[in-house]
Write a structure and sequence with these properties.
This protein is α/β, with parallel strands linked by helices. It is 31% helix and 17% strand. An 8-stranded mixed sheet has the order 1-2-4-3-5-6-7-8, sandwiched between helices.
């Protein structure tokens, strides 16, 4: 009975869940999906434009690890993808790198709820994402990692091990997992790595960390405290922004502020892309 119920839930998720909605949104924005092998997992990769000698790599937030705050979701893929919306306003060569078990891969071998709950930033997750990124990055391309929310944690962790990373840009980034857990009185993420507890990134990797003054999910003081522990990192707060609003609206200007502004202006395709509808 339990197996049958789980199978039914998985079938429903496949038909109407967040994974197909994410694919629909990405397609409407003009992005092309491919599935790429990592280290033991398959990753969805959404490409925006052909890569040159510099590549912006976007990392989404945690999505919906829990369906009701207690029980793990069947499909954790983000329902309101912020990083996807940011990439839609970035005219630079870019791609969005999905996590293991997200984007319809939740039933793959090796996947299970721990990989989107307590082990969402685990060694196996980071190692597989690093392998997948190496597989899709053009030879010699310099990388700028851009992460939203939990994707900020992954950006920091990937920067330790991916060659050619020039900068890390986070938006409402969860940069100190232990402090975030304490703030919300959550159960510790026992299976996860914590960028706040690791050796700071080398000063050669530029860092800028954006936070919203109205963000109750990752409050700006947590981001500021984590940024102070990183050599040369910049912290920028937008007082009227929260966890999701209104980063995409001002993203081209924020990229300029981050010092990773594109070398070309927005092309006509970028101007005509549709915005993501709220879910």
């Amino acid at each position: 009975m339990r197996i049958g119920a789980l199978a039914m839930l998985a079938a429903l998720a496949a038909c109407a869940g967040p994974s197909p909605r994410f694919d629909r949104d990405a397609g409407e924005l003009g992005f092309v999906r491919e599935d790429v092998a990592g280290a033991g997992f398959t990753h969805a990769v959404y490409r925006a434009r052909s890569a040159g000698n510099r590549l912006h790599v976007y990392l989404e937030g945690d999505g919906t690890p829990f369906a009701d705050g207690i029980h793990a979701s069947v499909d954790p893929t983000p329902r309101s993808p912020v990083a996807l919306a940011l990439m839609a306003r970035d005219p630079e060569a870019a791609l969005l790198l999905g996590r293991p078990c997200y984007h319809g891969h939740y039933a793959d071998a090796g996947c299970g709820p721990s990989l989107w709950t307590d082990a969402r930033y685990s060694e196996v997750v980071v190692a597989s994402m690093a392998r997948a990124l190496d597989a899709v990055r053009p030879s010699g391309a310099r990388v700028i990692l851009i992460g939203h929310s939990g994707g900020g944690a992954l950006a920091m962790l990937l920067a330790e091990r991916v060659a050619g990373v020039d900068a890390v840009v986070t938006v409402a980034g969860n940069l100190d997992v232990a402090a975030w857990v304490r703030r919300h009185d959550y159960e510790p993420l026992w299976g996860s790595l914590d960028p706040g507890a690791r050796t700071p990134l080398p000063a050669r990797i530029r860092q800028i960390h954006f936070a919203g003054g109205r963000d109750s999910e990752v409050p700006p003081e947590l981001v500021a405290a984590a940024a102070r522990r990183q050599p040369g990192a910049r912290f920028v707060m937008r007082p009227d922004f929260d966890h999701a609003c209104c980063w995409a609206r001002e993203w081209p200007e924020l990229l300029t502020q981050a010092g990773v502004e594109p070398v070309a202006t927005l092309d006509s395709a970028a101007h005509t892309r549709r915005t993501i509808k709220p879910q």
